[in-house]
Each structure stands twice: as C-alpha cells, then as structure tokens.
Amino acid sequence: MKKKIAILFGGQSTEHEVSRASASSVLKNIDQTKYDIYPIGITKDGLWFEYTGEIDNIENGEWEKDEYFKRPEGQKVIFNKEVDVVFPVLHGLFGEDGTIQGMCKISNIPCVGAGVMSSSVCMDKIYTKYLLEKFNVKQADYVVINAHEYKENKGLLIERIEKELGYDVFIKPSNGGSSVGITKAHNKSELITGVEEALKYDRKVLVEKAINAREIEVAILGNDYPQASIPGEIIPAKEFYDYEAKYKSEASKLLIPAALSYDKLQIVKEEAIRIYRILDCAGMARIDFLVDKETEDVYLNEVNTIPGFTKISMYPKMWEASGKTYVMLIDELIDLAIDRNNG
C-alpha cells in the first residue's frame, strides 16, 4: 500500500518564493509509484489549499489563480485526509521554526526533519550561538541588538559594536533565512542602515565580526546515526552570498567537493555531525561554516533544518556527489521521519 505524503509549500515567511521552488523540485523527483502525494499550498495570508494542478505553476506562483480555490470547498486543511508523513518544504518562520513540527507532533503525524525544540533553536541564530558556546563551537564574535534597546540607546549600541567588533561586520535578523535582510557594513553609516533594515524582519538582530573566509557547507542526513556528505564550497557572485547571489545570479559558483585538503574536509564533516547531535537535529540539516582564508580556522556560520531543495540548492547536490540521488534522498527522509516518530 502506498504511503500518503503531504508536501507543504509556500508559507507566510519572507522565503515563500524559495519554498515554492524547492517544493516543485521535490514533487518532480519523488517516486510516485511508492507514494500518494498531497501538495498543500499555504498562501502568504495563511490560507491552506490542496493543490492538484501543474507542478510548474507552484514555482511561478500561478497555482493561487486556480479557479478551484474560489469555491468554498477549495479550501483544505491537512488533517482532512489520512496522512502518513508530512514533508514541510517550508523555509523560514511558520515552517522551519517548530510551529508546523509542533502541529504534527500533537496530531501524531511523522514529520520530515527536526523536531520542535531543535527547529526553533536552529531558526534563531542568536540562541543557536548561546547554546553552542557551551560546547566550545568556534563562532565569529558578535553583539546582539533588541529593537527596544536600539530605540532607547541607539548611540551606545553603535559605539559598543564599533568598540567590540570594529569593521567589517555582518548584520542579520535573528530569525530568517535565504539571506533576506542581511547586509554587510564597512562603516558607521552602513552599520546603522543595516541594523534598521534587519529590524524590519525581526525584533532581534545579530551583528557579527566579518571573517575573511571561504563559505563551506555540509549536508547531514540521519537521526541517531547521522552521516555527512562531501562538503561543498560557495563562491558568491557578490561580496557575500546574499539573496540575489543565491537565487538570481548565474555567476555564483558551487564547488563539490570544496577545495580543501582531505584532512580539513574530515574536520569540517566531523564538526558538522557534532553540532547536529548537540542541537538534537533529525532527518536533515545543512551546516554552514566559514573557513578562514589565512589560518584555516573553522567557524560555524549557521544551521538550516529545512535546507533548500531547488534545482540549484547545495543540499541535494552534495548528496548526489556523495552517491545518493534526489529520489533516494527523498525516500530516506520519509523513512527517517517514520522511524523518529515510532521511536
């Protein structure tokens, strides 16, 4: 008997469009001889629909124009059907942050990927840092800004950043992904502009000292016995790997394997697995590192519990280079979700 798989896409986060592209790739690669597929689209307004139209219309956004949705019976919720596994291809808030995972847990439905705690901690860059500091995971120096503190003590906070970090710095919303709202500041004016831009997306902002580094990524797969892929390297088209360099520019390059020595590649893989276990991740994650160009010190950049699955995304590409096809990868993720739920 075929397993019933609900694939969630879209969502209310700033990564709505990226989610649609990822879900389109998953739907085109999942083995439909094994599974009955229920694509569930979530609009930016939070409406849930079961979508049965053309897959290409998911990626280009045309799915929301389907006449079916204009009728009352068009609106669905996932729990109206018997579902064996939920596969949330939802990046960012309201999908990657533990909310969907909690809903599935309450309903006792296996969910692909990390659980509630792990998802919520990994989504929040600041709390990821706080937790991993206890385990001596090497990270860039940083300062945390809260919206109310910035409003009341803007001058003092800017002074503190300049004193503790200097320039250059990266400014990031604490909860976000796909580099949305992230900027790099080379001076005070850019710092202020960057902080105020990041505060549009979150009430907490992370300011990190910039490292002259190479961007190295590792794909992790598994529950209690996670495996690491061959690491890959990002060579961004711009000064750093922002949203445009990730999804709009064809000049960014992806190298698999990363151009590091064998010993350094092993160190990166081992550290990725250690971090994955510390954070109690499950199913999958992409661990991103910065490797200093001069010292080759390895710094954690961030952890993504629902990495991109688009046709250009590193997660499936790294596993393909490691011997797992896209189809095999999806099968394993579904099995891992069931095993975790049963365990």
Q: How would you characterize this protein structure?
A:
By secondary structure, the protein is α+β, with helices and mostly antiparallel strands. It contains 11 helices and 14 strands. The protein folds into 3 domains: 3-111, Rossmann fold, CATH 3.40.50.20; 123-138 and 212-342, D-amino Acid Aminotransferase, Chain A, domain 1 (2-Layer Sandwich); 142-209, ATP-grasp fold, A domain (Dna Ligase, domain 1, 2-Layer Sandwich). The strands form 3 sheets. Strands 9, 10, 11, 12, 13 and 14 form a 6-stranded antiparallel β-sheet that branches. Strand 2 and strand 3 form a beta hairpin. It is globular and about 60 Å long.
Helix segment tally: 11
- Structural class by SSE content: alpha+beta
Judging from the principal axes of the Cα atoms, what is the shape? globular
Give helix % range. Answer: 25-40%
Low-pLDDT windows of residues: none
Radius of gyration: 20 Å
> Residue-averaged pLDDT, rounded?
91
CATH superfamily of the largest domain: ATP-grasp fold, B domain
Number of domain modules: 3
Oligomer description: single chain
CATH topology of the largest domain: D-amino Acid Aminotransferase, Chain A, domain 1
Instruction: Summarize the main sheet.
Output: 6 strands, antiparallel
Strand content: 15-25%
Q: How many DSSP-defined strands?
A: 14
| CATH class identity of the largest domain | Alpha Beta
Q: Distance N terminus to C terminus?
A: 22 Å
Order of helices and strands: EHEEHEHHHEHEEHEEEEHEHEEHH
- What is the CATH architecture annotation of the largest domain? 2-Layer Sandwich
